[in-house]
C-alpha cells in the first residue's frame, strides 16, 4: 500500500503537485482521506455533546481511514481520549497520541498486564474474572494504571451484569478503586424511538449513579443524537467521525471523509445480446460501450454491487456523470456502461469515482446490502492512500 502525503507538504525537487502525480501514476486506485473533515466532524459531535467530553473510536485502523494519521489529527485538534479494540491498535495510537487516554475495548487476556502498563493503556473489563486478573497484576507489579468497567444493559455481548456491577459499589466507595470509566453500549441508537433506548438509559443511569466520581459513558455516534440524557460524562463516536450517517432516519449531519477512485484499464464495445461478466447475468439491450475499471471485491468493492438483467447495481461517476455497473463485480475488475457519454469523455487510464461526487458510503452500503461501517473497514490495501487537509500537515505517512 502506497501512502502519499498531502500535495501541500514540501521538501522534494519536483513541485508538491508534480511529486504526488508521479507517485500516483501507477496506482490502479486512490483512496483519499480528508483529515480536516474528520476533525470537523469530531468538533461538531463535541459541540453537540457539551458539556460531555468527546472521545474518538479509532479501532479497525480508524474504520479503514488510517489510525496513525487520524489519531494525530484528532489529538492535535484537542481529542484527549481514544478507544480501540486490541492492544496492537493501542500501540499505534500511543505513538500517534502520546499523552492521551487509550481504552482497549477487547478487554484483558491473561498475562498481558505488562503490555498494558508498558504503553499506559486501559483495559475495558467486562467480566469478573478479568477484573480479578487485573487486580492481581496491579498488586504484584505495583502498577497504578486504571481500567474501565463495561456493564451490559441489553447488548448481551460483553459486560458485567447489572447485579455484578452493583457488587463493585463497596469497592468504589472505598476510594482507591482504580476504575476511571464505567460504560455500556446502546443496541438500537440509530432508531430514534426504539423502546430499548429508554430501557438501557434507565438501567445505565441507575448503576452509573452508584459509581460515585467515576466518568460514565453510554453513547456511540448515534446515541449522541438521542439527546443530552444519553450523553453522560463522555461520548464515544466512531462511524460519524468518518462520514457515516449517525441519524439514518434523517439527513446526514456529518461531512464526507473519503473519496475513492479507480482506473479504467480498457474500453470495449459489445453488441446487443452480448452478456457481461461471470454467470452471464447482464445482457446488453443495445450496442454498448464498456469501461473496464480496476477495482473489485478484493479491494473491498463488494460483489453485491453488481447488476443483472433484473436488478440495477451501484453507479460509478465517469467524467462527472453517473454510469451503471454492468454485470457482476469480479475480484479485481468491474464493467461500467458508458454508452451515454461522449466518446471523447472516456479514455483508458482515466480515474473514475466509486465513492465521492455524490456517491456516499451509505449509498454504497445500501447496494451492498450492509452498513457503512463494513464498507469503510473493507477498503483494500491495494489503493494508494492520500491524506489531505491542514489537519494532516504533520501526520505520519
Q: State the total count of DSSP E strands.
A: 20
Shape: elongated
Tally of alpha and pi helices: 13
| Radius of gyration from CA coordinates | 24 Å
Q: Beta fraction of the residues? A: 15-25%
Mean pLDDT: 93
Find the structural class using helix and strand composition: alpha/beta
Distance between the termini: 11 Å
Largest sheet: 7 strands, mixed
Helix share, percent: 25-40%
Outline the low-pLDDT stretches.
Answer: none
Overview in brief:
By secondary structure, the chain is of the alpha/beta class. It contains 13 helices and 20 strands.
Polypeptide structure, described:
The structure is a single chain. The strands form five sheets. Strands 1, 2, 12, 15, 18, 19 and 20 form a seven-stranded mixed sheet that branches. Strands 4-5-6-7-8-9-10 form a seven-stranded parallel sheet. The longest helix is centred in the first third of the chain and has 15 residues, at 35-49. The mean pLDDT is 93. The chain is elongated, with a radius of gyration of 24 Å. The protein contains 13 helices and 20 strands. Helices cover 28% and strands 21% of the residues. The chain is an alpha/beta fold.
Tags for this model:
20 strands, 7-stranded mixed sheet, 7-stranded parallel sheet, 397 residues, alpha/beta, 13 helices, single chain
Amino acid at each position: 500500500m502506497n501512502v502519499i502525503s498531502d500535495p501541500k507538504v514540501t521538501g522534494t525537487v519536483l513541485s508538491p503537485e508534480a511529486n504526488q502525480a508521479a507517485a500516483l501514476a501507477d496506482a490502479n486506485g486512490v483512496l483519499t482521506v480528508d483529515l480536516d473533515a474528520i476533525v470537523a466532524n469530531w468538533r461538531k459531535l463535541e459541540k453537540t455533546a457539551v458539556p460531555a467530553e468527546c472521545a474518538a473510536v479509532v479501532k479497525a485502523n480508524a474504520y479503514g481511514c488510517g489510525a496513525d494519521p487520524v489519531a494525530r489529527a484528532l489529538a492535535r485538534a484537542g481529542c484527549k481520549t481514544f478507544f480501540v479494540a486490541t492492544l496492537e491498535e493501542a500501540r499505534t495510537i500511543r505513538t500517534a497520541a502520546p499523552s492521551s487516554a487509550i481504552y482497549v475495548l477487547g478487554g484483558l487476556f491473561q498475562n498481558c498486564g505488562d503490555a498494558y502498563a508498558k504503553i499506559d493503556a486501559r483495559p475495558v473489563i467486562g467480566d469478573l474474572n478479568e477484573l480479578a486478573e487485573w487486580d492481581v497484576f496491579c498488586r504484584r507489579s505495583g502498577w497504578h494504571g486504571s481500567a474501565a468497567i463495561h456493564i451490559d444493559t441489553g447488548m448481551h455481548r460483553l459486560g458485567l451484569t447489572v447485579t455484578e456491577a452493583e457488587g463493585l459499589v463497596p469497592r468504589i466507595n472505598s476510594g482507591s478503586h482504580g476504575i476511571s470509566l464505567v460504560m455500556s453500549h446502546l443496541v438500537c441508537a440509530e432508531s430514534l424511538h426504539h423502546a430499548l433506548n429508554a430501557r438501557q438509559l434507565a438501567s445505565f443511569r441507575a448503576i452509573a449513579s452508584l459509581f460515585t466520581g467515576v466518568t460514565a459513558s453510554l453513547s456511540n455516534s448515534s446515541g449522541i443524537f438521542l439527546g443530552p440524557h444519553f450523553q453522560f460524562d463522555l461520548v464515544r463516536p466512531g462511524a460519524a467521525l468518518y462520514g457515516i450517517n449517525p441519524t439514518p432516519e434523517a439527513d446526514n449531519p456529518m461531512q464526507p471523509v473519503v473519496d475513492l477512485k479507480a482506473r479504467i484499464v480498457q474500453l470495449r464495445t459489445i453488441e446487443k445480446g452480448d452478456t457481461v461478466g461471470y454467470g452471464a447475468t447482464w445482457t446488453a439491450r443495445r450496442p454498448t460501450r464498456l469501461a473496464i475499471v480496476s477495482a473489485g471485491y478484493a479491494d473491498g468493492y463488494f460483489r453485491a454491487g453488481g447488476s443483472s438483467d433484473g436488478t440495477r447495481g451501484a453507479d460509478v461517476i465517469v467524467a462527472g456523470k453517473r454510469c451503471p455497473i454492468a454485470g457482476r463485480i469480479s475480484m479485481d475488475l468491474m464493467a461500467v456502461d458508458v454508452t451515454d457519454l461522449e466518446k471523447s469523455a472516456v479514455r483508458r487510464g482515466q480515474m473514475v469515482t466509486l465513492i465521492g461526487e455524490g456517491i456516499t458510503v451509505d449509498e454504497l452500503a445500501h447496494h451492498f446490502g450492509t452498513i457503512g461501517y463494513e464498507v469503510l473497514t473493507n477498503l483494500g490495501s491495494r489503493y494508494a492512500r492520500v491524506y489531505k487537509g491542514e489537519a494532516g500537515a504533520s501526520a505520519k505517512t
